[in-house]
Design a protein that fits this description.
Layout lengths: L4 H11 L19 H9 L3 H4 L3 E4 L2 E6 L4 H11 L16 H17 L7 H17 L3 H13 L7 H18 L10 H7 L8
Antiparallel strand pairs: 1-2
Main location: mitochondrion
Protein name: Sulfhydryl oxidase
Subcellular location: Mitochondrion intermembrane space
Length: 203
């Protein structure tokens, strides 16, 4: 009897290093995973490869495999997996989940900062359509699903700039809390996304 999709997914998840996220197809998702987690995944040595060696005899090289003891194999595997650190990210790499998230939040917060004080029906309709499309179109399916659930509990307020800025800030803070990051003061959205710091350091 073959394994079910759930069994295969569970088995694959158990083999993944921490931080690597599976996509809807059951495979590791690059845009759902931070680069620092994805890179070690590509460098991992499999147990089978780490537990075999190629020996050389006096008569020349012999391509035979000899199993080494389990303790040595475990040490070899552990040393072959690099630690999870912030690796330098080449500029020409596709965005990972963190880069995509920062860019998306920057776009949304800035758009809200320049949204009309009182939106007319056309402006409100377009903004609502933009926000409503994200749970369907956002590349990271896990992020999109979470945003969709948040929007069901708290529908977007597109009536004007202040209301939209606060709504986005509150949704962003929900993500921050989920990720263990500090919350942002929603009274400072204009300072952060429109006017700049009061000390003029961005002028």
């Amino acid at each position: 009897m073959g394994t079910t999709n759930n069994e295969e997914s569970t088995s694959q998840t158990q083999k993944l290093p921490p931080g690597v996220v599976l996509g809807p197809d059951g495979k590791p998702c690059k845009v759902c995973t931070a680069f620092r987690h994805w890179k070690p995944l590509k460098n991992m040595t499999t147990p089978k490869a780490a537990a075999t060696t190629t020996t050389t005899t006096t008569k020349g090289p012999v391509n035979s495999q000899h199993t080494i003891d389990p303790i040595s194999a475990s040490l070899a595997i552990a040393s072959a997996i690099p630690p999870i650190i912030d690796l330098p990210r080449p500029d020409n790499c596709p965005p990972d989940v963190e880069q995509l998230g920062r860019a998306t939040w920057s776009f949304l917060h800035t758009t809200a900062a320049y949204y009309p004080e009182r939106a007319d029906p056309t402006q409100a309709r377009h903004m609502y359509s933009l926000l409503s499309a994200l749970p369907t179109l956002y590349p990271c399916s896990h992020c999109a699903s979470h945003l969709g659930e948040c929007m069901k509990r708290n529908p977007p307020d597109v009536s004007g700039r202040a209301a939209l800025s606060r709504w986005l800030c509150e949704r962003h803070n929900e993500v921050n809390v989920r990720l263990g990051k500090p919350s942002f003061d929603c009274n400072k959205t204009d300072e952060r996304w429109k006017d700049g710091p009061l000390d003029g350091s961005c002028d």
